[in-house]
Amino acid sequence: MFQGVFLALAIIIAIVFAGFIFLSLVSYPIFAILYVLCASGILIAALSLSGKISGSFIDGILGASRRKRSFREQLSGDLERTKECKRKEDFGQALCMINEYLDQDPDYPEALYLKAQILSEGFGRFAEARRYLKQIIQMIPDDQTFHRWALSYYDEVKEMEKREETQLTSNEK
Q: In terms of pTM, does the model score above 0.70?
């Protein structure tokens, strides 16, 4: 309520200043400049206090609203840093980071998929990796691409596990 009153008051003051500007242009141009600066300051203060200026000045003036970022969008930088650790084969750090991420958002398919990759490729923990992939497969509809990726990687993890078992048995002989 006070915001609207303050904005209306600021507009009235700006109109009064506009009258002074017109009169000052005729007699003293320096006063016109001072009036413009004062009126601008009052309008900017009114707009910011009324919530019209939120993100940037232009957005506030034009009335553009700012879209709120989802929780997952806010954490996307964390996920990217985790992917970078995995690419650098720093699997220990990547696992710590993905666990922190999953503590905050335990049902995010992309994070679960990344954890499955880290577990299988970095630590050879294939059973755990398959468990996370099963979770993804169950939560995502069959017709979505990510579901197919999880299925494909599930099969790949099974193959990695077979290769490792074969290699272990051949080394024992």
A: no
